[in-house]
Design brief:
single chain, alpha/beta, Rossmann fold, eight-stranded mixed sheet, 13 strands, binds S-adenosylmethionine
């Protein structure tokens, strides 16, 4: 039987990647890659140029981008529980982290995936890692004004918008909206990542999509530009490579991400969403929420009875109130 797509299977596939590469050399490859990413985006040519670039990218970043996309897909599935994509296109899919997350989300019957990227070494490694776990095709494609996609149920665009010019971002999101039923876009959970998500969200809503998550509605985001940014957090266990590159001894790190999941399918967005890590004090929980009337702070105390217990369990990114408390 084929292995199922999961964080563990992905980790196992990645484990062999740096075998034979002295740890120092692996750490140096990652450092070079991080420096490249810092200095030169957007670029005219792929940053992931050869096997050692993509091996470093995959080993270092794939577990984190996988978890971020997994978080976004979890929220989409809560809003559209009956919806299952039969086809999926992963644009700027690189070594396939988002495709792994999609296959995991609809594990019983994963969609047929097409991964598009302009970096051939990334596609080659993605294909190799996916082995027989993913039902995927890997195709070279340049994102730009000339991009034309086939109709598909689901498009994912994970950690790609930052690498594009504003014009190419617009072209990509417009084309995705033309061909897809549902579009999921994930970016780093930074102020500028959030801004790119909001720009994409606006284009999707203008194209007739409904926001399934994280927002409780498809109206304007209540965050005043420049004052804050909507983002979430996914826990990722650290590999020995991470410890070498970043130091520290924590067995995990938290990947911050921003996202939008929008669809033409009927959905039930959450009533409100928890937008910060809940503050738990003696006898009370303070929740920062985004709800139908905008941003709000709710304090739940012991006097609220069962709701208090739920508030103690609720996490950043979850729906509030919990479904069965409505
Ligand atoms: C940071 S990586 C993200 C990869 C993958 N989606 C993930 O979440 O791990 C960005 C990817 O976008 C691809 N990319 C950037 N600009 C592109 C373009 N103009 N056309 C096609 N692919 C592009 C890169 O080659 C790279 O694989």
């Amino acid at each position: 039987m084929n292995a199922s797509p999961s964080a563990d299977t992905l980790r196992a596939a990645l484990a062999g990647l740096l075998d034979g590469l002295p740890p120092r050399q692996a750490a140096r490859a990652v450092e070079r890659l991080i420096a490249n990413y810092r200095g030169t985006t957007p670029t005219d040519a792929p940053v992931l140029r050869d096997r050692s670039d993509v091996a470093a990218y995959a080993a270092y970043r794939m577990p984190a981008t996988f978890e971020a996309v997994r978080g976004a897909l979890g929220a989409l599935r809560e809003a559209a529980p009956g919806w299952e994509p039969r086809t999926h296109t992963d644009i700027g899919g690189g070594t396939g982290a988002a495709s792994w997350a999609v296959a995991e989300a609809w594990e019983d019957e994963p969609p047929r995936t097409t991964v598009l990227d302009w970096a051939e070494p990334a596609l080659a490694l993605g294909r190799e890692l996916a082995g027989s776990v993913l039902d995927a095709q890997w195709r070279r494609e340049r994102i730009g004004a000339a991009l034309r996609l086939d109709d598909t149920d689901l498009v994912t665009v994970s950690y790609v918008l930052k690498e594009l010019t504003p014009a190419d971002r617009t072209a990509l999101v417009t084309e995705a909206a033309r061909v897809a039923r549902t579009v999921v876009i994930v970016e780093a959970g930074t102020p500028d990542g959030y801004e790119r998500i909001i720009a994409a969200r606006t284009l999707l809503v203008e194209a007739g999509f409904t926001v399934a998550a994280p927002c409780p509605h498809s109206g304007a985001c209540p965050i005043e530009p420049g004052t804050d940014w909507c983002h979430f957090s996914a826990r990722v266990s650290r590999s020995s490579l991470h410890r070498q590159v970043k130091g520290g001894s924590l067995p995990y790190e938290d990947e911050k991400y921003a996202y939008v999941a929008a669809t033409r399918h009927p959905v039930t967005p959450v009533a409100s969403r928890v937008t910060r890590r809940p503050q738990i004090r003696k006898g009370l929980v303070q929740l920062e929420l985004c709800g139908p009337d905008g941003l709000a702070r709710e304090t739940v105390t012991k006097r609220h009875g069962p709701l208090y217990k739920r508030a103690r369990d609720v996490a950043w990114g979850d729906a509030w109130p919990p479904e069965d408390e409505d």
